[in-house]
Amino acid sequence: MTSRSIRDLLATGEPTFSFEFFPPRTDDGERTLWQALRELESLRPSFVSITYGAGGSTRDRTVDITERIGSETTLLPMGHLTAVDHSVAELRRVIGQYAAAGVHNVLALRGDPPGDPQAEWRKHIEGLEYADELVRLIKEHGDFTVGVAAFPEKHPRSPDQETDAKFLVQKCRAGADFAITQMFFYVDDWLRLRDRVAKHGCEAPIIPGIMPVTNVSQIERFAILSGAAFPPELAEKLHAVEDDASAVRAIGVDWATAMCERLLAEGAPGLHFITLNRSTATREIWNRLQLSSVNR
Questions:
Q1: Out of 16, 109, 135, 246, which residue is the most buried by the measure of CB atoms under 10 Å away?
Q2: Going by C-beta distance under 8 Å and a sequence separation of 6 or more, which residues neighbour residue 149?
Q3: Residue 122: closest CA among 153, 155, 74, 86
């Protein structure tokens, strides 16, 4: 397995393009995942990531799929790791699994409480309290490139945006090499986050996370859970055609493409597409961005 690092890719100054998948729970879901992976592999993304279920509920599947991507495809995999409901000993074991599998790019997250993401956060009695502690733990175990989460509109549990920015800076000073944002819909929110973090002297790249709208009720539910503001003008367009899947996807692709074009123009270090294990919308956006760059 290759030992390419996302840190080195970002250091070139060229925008990265990456895709996020989740570990399926069924055989049909696994087939859908691998079909999407193969379809997106031809686009030669910078890296792909596999999420980690709440409370470590998909830990084994996440590690297994991340390893298979590294050994069976040309893609560079990044594993996820969350602190929630894990002792330090368990976290060390997972870090060791990644290292043994040749996976040296990891996204370190505190994670949401299992069952109810909005429930009160409680650390494991033998675990970690904050994501910066997890960053340090991973870095202690070898030459890992470590990413962390960022929140353009602030984390739902943060009291205000300034405090939230300080949390991100703490994670970077703990050793994080870059950040990937939660999904958002207003480019100005990402720009303001970048400015807040830079004010504290932190220059770690903050990669925007983009989730193309393909299902109206699903995206609105995700927006509520993440605290992302859902644009009323986008909602109005989507609800007007919500029974027409192709029309919904077309509107979602238009909105996401416009966001991506402006983000790149504003100097975003890359784009991270949250695919929901489907490839069609992401491929459409990718193709539009490539055409746009050719025509500049």
A1: 135
A2: 107, 109, 131, 179, 180, 181, 182
A3: 86
- How do residues 25-46 score in pLDDT, each as one tens digit? 888 998 999 999 999 999 999 9
Residues 23 and 1: their CA atoms lie apart, in Å, by 20
- Structure-token match 């691998």, residue found: 34
Tell me: pLDDT of 53 over 70.
Answer: no
pLDDT at 77 over 50: yes
Task: Establish whether 90 is a catalytic residue.
Answer: no
The whole-angstrom distance between residue 70's C-alpha and the CA centroid of its chain comes to 18
Q: Which of 175, 134, 184 minimizes the C-alpha distance to 154?
A: 184
What pLDDT does 2 receive? 46
Single out the catalytic residue among 20, 67, 133, 153.
20
The answer to whether 158 and 167 have CB atoms below 8 angstroms apart is yes
One-letter amino acid at 115 equals: G
pLDDT of residue 116: 58
**C-beta separation of 105 from 6 below 8 A:** yes
Q: Measure the CA–CA gap between 235 and 169, rounded to whole angstroms.
A: 33
Model confidence at 117, in pLDDT bands (50, 70, 90)? low
